[in-house]
Amino acid sequence: MLPLAAVVAASREDGLSAFWSAVSNPEAVAALKLSVVVAILAALVNAVFGTITAWVLVRDRFHGRSVLNSVIDLPFALPTIVAGLVLLALYSPRSPIGVHLAFTRWAIFMALLFVTLPFVVRTVQPVLLELDTEMEEAARSLGASELTVFRRVVLPNILPGILSGIALAFARAVGEIGSLVLISGNNPFHTEVASVYVLNQVHSGNRSAAASVAVVLLFISFVILLVVGGIRRLATRHEHA
Amino acid sequence: MRRLGLRGVALAYLAVVLLGPLAMIFYKTFEHGFGPFWDALTAHETAGAFENTLIITAIAVPLNTLFGIVCALAIVRRRFPGKGLVNAFIDLPLAVSPVVVGVSLFLLYGRGGWFYGWFESHGIQILFSLPAMVIATMFVSLPFVAREVVPTLREVGEEQEQAAHTLGASGWQTFWRITLPSIRWAVIYGVVLTTARCLGEYGAVAVVHGYKTTATLQVQDYYENFNQAGAYAVSLMLAAIAVIVLVSMVLLRPKEAPA
Fold first, then answer.
1. What ipTM does this complex have?
2. Angle value at C-alpha A83, between A77 and A89, nearest 5 degrees
3. Which of A194, B56, B78, B129 is surrounded by the most beta carbons within 10 Å?
4. What fold, for B34-252?
């Protein structure tokens, strides 16, 4: 905790106005905006595909499913810098698959998709496992279409899981650095994300700028922890009702 | 039919996002044969980087394991003021950007920081040296053991411990004979996750490392100095460790896999 308190202190030691001018520096604003927008997009895309993946892992039966289940955790286990290097090789001008995304915002998006992939899968999967199929069968026998079953029976049950997965994925994505430092090109105003901006400010000896943007990131993390806690509480209250 | 469709979508997505990159490491590492790979791996810098990574991991993992177990015991078995707060903040390192962790250490131990004067007057260098890298790594890998042990402790319950207690076992004896054996798989699982995180940490260490490198920093260093072979060789080693971690996670958790 103490280290984090020091960031807050350091960001304010030159007064609140200095903090504001550091945070409202156009480059810092652009970096923060980029981080937040791309992180939201990545979290939402992974919410859709993560839910589908969790569904397939729990309800479907096919060979290699257990292998697939463990492969999901790859982005957690693989060092992010390695992920960044590999994505760079995959999308660079000499790409073997002919896709040239490196040093663009798309590259940042793809890297964030990779590192946040497990979150929604891992929050939805346990809920789906516990969910009784009887409810769905009852709905079906009463004439509900597949879409209605999913929308009215399955979705309400897994929604807290999806939401907390999105929140965790967003938290991870907004502060992500390892996978982005190589691939994003770190072009100010264009592909420089907030975390890389902070790192650059530290390396150029600009303490208060680094601390100020770090505090904004820290604040986002706190908010997300609170949101996840709130979702968890809502979900368990629902259970007891 | 629909089921097959969903399966197809899920598999295709995973193939594009996950397996493509993994295959790419192998392809890139051995693009020019085995020779460059071996040369890069046995290079002086590579060895030094891996040595630093191993030292950091060897310090951080045992300390975090101990802390994790104590913390989990405190959260589950004890009541104390501020317990809810501890419970909430234990997850903080997972939500906070590693760069923020690095910057905070930088500000704390750097020139003008709260701890700077004390360590400076005792001639101990923290920042831009191994101690700061160890602290940074410990911070980001802090929650894993506690997070694994807490649910297991809850599930196991207190009855056996109370039984041991009534039979005259001391606190230590109860812990060693009853509690620890029942949570050992959770502890091992947590240690595996902690180790993986320590070996792969980049963001926090990148801020405070100075001239010392770790394996992950060496990847960046090689890449930026146009030593592609070196970057991919170190990457392959790290990826291999990641795969070992994944495999051991499967082996350690056979029951929970939905068969």
1. 0.81
2. 155
3. A194
4. MetI-like fold (1.10.3720)
